[in-house]
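Q: What residues go here?
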């Protein structure tokens, strides 16, 4: 009887910890996408082909090189994902991954020697936010936001396989998702 009580206690504790972590990382966050005009950020990045799971490594590499080689610190990373992993082979997935330049714009010409540099177009996008509390939030955000975008696109006459930008805003502890809008037809 004592062994069963201990086992149930351990299972209960693990369940409580799991639910607490799910809540902390945003698991119960309601996703409310809206169409919003945004963009205009200066993007410093590398082009990436392959498994999207490598985005963190590429983003960290760009961030560190900005600090080490150019003395620039940024607080926002991003990824623009062009392909749907459900329909494109993992090794053929395309993305642009890096950092958003928030200062030191006078160094843009120098940065072009080491990175791709562009301004993200100002346009209307389908936008949603999710809390950022670490890598687990990124994974939960993907699992919650992308299906919501897909449903919204389908219900409102938009193509579902359009690029999505994720902005990882560390100081504001949020991930902003922007989906390109293109009407079907």
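A:
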């Amino acid at each position: 009887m004592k062994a069963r009580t201990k086992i149930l206690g351990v299972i209960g504790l693990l369940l409580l910890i799991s639910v607490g972590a799910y809540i902390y990382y945003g698991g119960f966050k309601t996703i409310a996408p809206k169409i919003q005009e945004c963009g205009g950020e200066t993007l410093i990045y590398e082009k990436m082909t392959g498994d999207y799971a490598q985005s963190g490594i590429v983003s960290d590499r760009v961030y560190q090189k900005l600090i080490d080689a150019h003395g620039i610190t940024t607080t926002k990373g991003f990824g623009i994902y062009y392909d749907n992993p459900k329909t494109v082979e993992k090794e053929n997935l395309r993305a642009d991954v890096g950092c958003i330049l928030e200062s030191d714009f006078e160094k843009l010409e120098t940065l072009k020697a080491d990175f791709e540099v562009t301004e993200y177009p100002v346009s209307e996008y389908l936008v949603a936010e999710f809390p950022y509390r670490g890598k687990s939030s990124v994974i939960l955000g993907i699992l919650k936001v992308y299906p919501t975008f897909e449903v919204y696109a389908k219900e409102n006459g938009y193509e579902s396989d359009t690029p999505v930008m994720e902005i990882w805003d560390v100081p504001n502890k949020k991930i902003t998702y922007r989906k390109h809008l293109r009407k079907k037809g």
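A: Context that may help when evaluating the design: The longest strand covers residues 123-131. The helical segments are 2-24, 55-70, 108-111, 135-155.
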